[in-house]
Design brief:
It is a single chain. By secondary structure, this protein is an all-alpha fold. The relative contact order is 0.16. It is globular. The protein starts with 17 loop residues before the first helix and ends with a helix. The protein is built from six helices and no strands. Helix content is 68%, strand content 0%.
């Protein structure tokens, strides 16, 4: 009698609704306003000074404040692929871990804007 392998357990992926995507877009606009970055620049392909960091923190804050959104939806909101969203979130986590001064200065401003936006929802 052969041994059977146990069945794999599948994790149900996050699946945000259209309302969640709208909230994500509103949060992105709040972050752009706080950091004085045009939304077009955030979703564009420019890699000029500081923009990649703003994208990293925006993806991180989207994941934090709108947890229903999956990586694909975060990527779609930002004009990127899901893999780019994962990379951005992981990069932001690393910057936060090492307390990168330049990143943390902008991140504190973005986080305050996100918290202010979140309070309006409540």
């Amino acid at each position: 009698m052969s041994k059977r392998r146990p069945r794999k357990q599948f994790v149900v992926p996050r699946q945000g609704t259209i309302e969640d995507e709208k909230r994500g877009a509103e949060l992105m606009m709040a972050i752009c306003g706080a950091l004085a970055v045009p939304a077009e620049a955030l979703i564009g392909h420019s890699r000029s000074h500081g923009l990649p960091d703003v994208r990293h923190m925006t993806a991180y804050l989207l994941r934090d404040f709108v947890p229903q959104l999956n990586y694909r939806q975060i990527g779609d909101l930002m004009g990127r692929h899901h893999a780019s969203a994962i990379h951005s979130i992981n990069t932001a986590k690393r910057y936060i871990e090492i307390q990168d001064e330049q990143f943390m200065a902008a991140f504190d401003i973005a986080q305050k804007a996100a918290k202010k936006w979140h309070k309006k929802l409540m």
